[in-house]
Amino acid sequence: MKCLIVEDDFISRRILKEMLSQHFDCDIAINGEEAITSFRLAHEGKHPYDLICMDIMMPGVNGQEALRRIRELERSLDIPPHLEAKVIMTTALDDPKTVVQAFYQGGATSYIVKPVSKQKLMNELRALSLL
């Protein structure tokens, strides 16, 4: 399976890659713009991502905008909803407004508040039937 880690913080990227690389072939993007490009290129190469772990707050194109554009790309490629990439949004913000924006407006599959522990992440992956 293939995973895209989208995180502007080096340490957070490294930790997520360590946790996920046992189960996924992981690619890295350091901002939302790179995430959108990586997503498009993966589909063009016929190796789409099964999972995207994306930070909400990043400079430039933030995680919510990147996810909105990724979901638009999926619709333009006629990808049925049940085959869309599973997207876990990560953030240090644990407020209801952020949760509502990530899920209902952004199309996130799941949401984890930082710090991301291996147990939390593995539980989410099991809940999403990715493990």
Describe the structure.
By secondary structure, this protein is an alpha/beta fold. Helices cover 44% and strands 19% of the residues. The protein is built from 5 helices and 5 strands; from the N terminus they run βαβαβαβαβα.
The whole-angstrom Rg is 13 Å
Number of helices: 5
Main β sheet profile: 5 strands, parallel
Mean pLDDT: 90
Q: What global shape is seen? A: globular
Q: Helicity range of the residues? A: 40-55%
What string gives the helices and strands in order?
EHEHEHEHEH
Q: End-to-end span in angstroms?
A: 10 Å
Q: Please mark out the parts with pLDDT under 50 across 5 or more consecutive residues, or reply none.
A: none
Structural class: alpha/beta
DSSP strand (E) fraction?
15-25%
Instruction: Describe the strand arrangement of the main beta sheet, using strand numbers.
Output: 2-1-3-4-5
- Tell me how many strands there are: 5
Search tags:
131 residues, alpha/beta, 19% strand, 5 helices, 5 strands, five-stranded parallel sheet
Explain the layout of strands and helices:
Layout: E1 2-6, H1 10-20, E2 25-29, H2 32-44, E3 51-55, H3 63-76, E4 86-91, H4 96-105, E5 110-113, H5 118-127
Parallel strand pairs: 1-2, 1-3, 3-4, 4-5
Helix pairs in contact: 2-3
Provide a compact summary of the structure.
The chain is 44% helix and 19% strand. By secondary structure, the chain is of the alpha/beta class. The N and C termini lie close together (10 Å).
